[in-house]
Hints:
Helix content is about 0%, strand content about 45%. A hairpin with a 5-residue loop joins strand 5 and strand 6 (about 55-60). Strands 2, 4, 5, 6, 9, 10 and 11 form a seven-stranded mixed sheet that branches. A four-stranded antiparallel sheet has the order 1-3-8-7, with no helix packed on it. The protein is mainly beta. The protein starts with a strand and ends with a strand.
Amino acid sequence: VQLQASGGGLVQAGGSLRLSCAASARTFSGKAMGWFRQAPGKEREFVAAISGSRIGLYADSVKGRFAISRDNPKNTVYLQMNSLKPEDTAVYYCAARSYSSYSSSRTAYDYWGQGTQVTVSS
């Protein structure tokens, strides 16, 4: 499975961005998808995940501001990010796992995209 993340950029605090992740998997609908992020000097952390049945899971730090969704015919998962804060600045990675149930653990994901940079200025 190949994953291609896009949509990152520079935005002011309070602004919005939408990240996209296109997957090559023929069985995309059966795979849970996740978004993680890594800031300089920090470990990669969970942001959001969506199950094959479109149930979402969010980190407390982004709950109410971010929304994850998926378009199965397009093999694409999205992360809508609103009310962005400087502390959201990081490289954002999408990931896929071989099961339809979501997880917040990095080790549960089998495939990773290359990452897209999100920078939020104050």
